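re: ur msg from earlier - yeah i can do the 4'-deoxy-4'-aminopyridoxal-5'-phosphate complex, just paste it... oh wait u already did. ok heres what im feeding in:
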Amino acid sequence: MKSSRIAERVRRIKQSPSSAAAERAAELRRQGKDIVNLVVGEPDFDTPAHIRKAACEAIERGETRYTATAGTPALRKAIADKLASENKLHYEPRDIIATCGAKHAIFNALAITVESGDEVLVPAPYWVSYPDMVLACDGKPVIVVCTEADGFKLTPALLEAAITPRTKWLILNSPSNPTGASYSLEELRALSDVLLRHPQVLVMTDDIYEHIRFDGAATPHILNAAPELRERTLVINGVSKTYAMTGWRIGYAAGPSDLIAALDVLQSQSTSNPSSVSQAAALAALSGDQSFVADFAGVYRQRRDRGLELLNAIPGLSCRTPGGAFYLFVNCGGLLGRKTPDGGTLQSDVDVVMYFLESTGVALVAGSAYGVSPYFRMSIATAVEVIEEGCRRMAAAVAALS
Ligand code: PMP
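and the outut:
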């Protein structure tokens, strides 16, 4: 962005690479190209009927006005009940704020705490938005690269080495977008042992994929491992992924009362409450039938297994088995240095992704967007036939390399 009338804090950030890739795939499709879209970062299921119905009923009842900035008492109580029953985390409704999506909660949490130059530890591979959100809040993202050999997980040694007196936050995301890496309770305990030695560090847990995991177990929380961290931990979650409600824009944060109070003030002077109708829908989601949540996870699991089988059969590609979320994070190092039919050489994961897009119409996101190379992210939030077709085309494109 060149225009000098745009503030520096916005000029230093960029559009989300996954949104950019999704828009590029949509554009090519509009031009009539046959595109297999494996970029999508949202469930392909419809929001369940009882949730949609609750929203319609709320409209008919006249729940169409402003609510309390932090959300309706009923929704905050439902969130408190969910955190207690599912996560064994006990918060009063007043220590919870509903937001316009988890993304909004994360952004506002950084906005209320980060001073110019404060460091925020972002383990890579990371969700694309974290570093740019930190930059937009005048902070310094400190990228901590986690290796494939470590399962793309932060280790205590890496964490210890990255902490400085300026470290304000550690952001943890389990299961992770893009790798699906999921921390065990023991791993979280080991990380908290380090954190307990550094009381200036706040901990933000992005739990948005907690229910999309493949072992049927509950996702452990760092506060289960180390309740001592409670006064400096902010729990972030939302209904987007679990309930196929990405468009409704309801997320939330739970945490220490000073942080929640500051979030409330900022929200009161910016967006005000999240949509009243969406809050009614989220209330129905959290307090209604949960049986389909496991059904969704089962469907993702079948797609994961099929995608892994096909990808790992393509020479030059390899993929670890993700524990959760709906992505495969594929190592494409074996393709680097190979020649394309038009004489080019694949030098990076961006080249690989461009080659797949231009030669076979398969849309993916390059690993560099997530802070590590050479990888690409392939979404499995789409029909198994689409995954199969994408893999078939990638196999053909790889076979055409010399
Ligand atoms: N965190 C992660 C890791 C995500 O992948 C996403 C969605 N792509 C979000 C947060 C944002 O979710 P929401 O729709 O609730 O804003």
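cool cool. The chain has 14 helices and 13 strands. ping me if u need the other ligands too
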